Amino acid sequence: MTSHTVGHLAASLPPSVEAHALRTDIRFVEFFGLPGVGKTTTSRLLANSLRRRGPLVGEVRIAWEGRTFIERQIYRIGVVAPRFLDREFRSLFTRIARFVVESRQASLLDAVRLVWNLVGLVAFIQQERSRRNSIIIMDQGLLQGFWSVFLKSKCRKTSEKWLDMLSTLGVHDMVFVHLRSETGIARDRLQTRGDRSSRLQRTSPESDPDLWSAADRACREMAAALERSMGTEDHIGVLAAVDVEMFASPEDVAERALEAVLLACLDRHRLCDSPGQ
Fold first, then answer.
1. What's the helix, strand, coil split of the chain in %, to 5?
2. How far is CA 193 from CA 56, 125, 212, in A?
3. Where is this region: Disordered (predicted)?
4. pLDDT tens profile 111-140
5. Which of 44, 181, 248, 251 is deepest in the core (most CB within 10 A)?
């Protein structure tokens, strides 16, 4: 990632286009990375930093913020159900279901959960695109959903490809922030958490020594595939990488993520203003 300070990035946007840069182009910021790397904490700190910039970004919200697990599921039902009237949504739902089923998950319950999670995210994104002057931050988004499929997959060869489904949904208004970390750092941080929400928390290294290696490999392969795809197509979103070192504070990581997001907005503004666009 190009080195810039937040001040330099904000100052490089003329006052007349500051609000335009985020309000009309970048609508979603999605974090991606190993469990324990700090996605939830960084998303909260990033949201606070963006909110302090006022008119530069408009409204800033964290997806599902303030909702319990049950409330999130009820909300998802409310956004998913009406979209089954749309043929394109039904087609994407079928493709997601086929992708998950062909990946051969460990159990039927796992497959149902993964399909529901991805379909709920698709419906949520489609609904939020109808709003204006807002940016949504997701600590568990589409990439993390596809990563979960690969983590539990017994078969990587499927007739549906995750990048094709991502392209069908459209990611022109998204910034994907890949929080990169060594597996040891993520594992140590994850073990200090009080909950048991991640499969990697519930599996000991002795019982499944290859699980962390598989999780890390899936993250890196997905990020590399997304970067190659973005290099060959126009307006297909932005991928930024933020390294998380052992002694990096949450505030340091959030500051780097903020720089990545503002830089993406600046680049998008320049692209829109370039001749022929």
1. 60, 10, 30
2. 34, 29, 17
3. 191-211
4. 999 999 999 999 999 999 887 778 899 999
5. 181
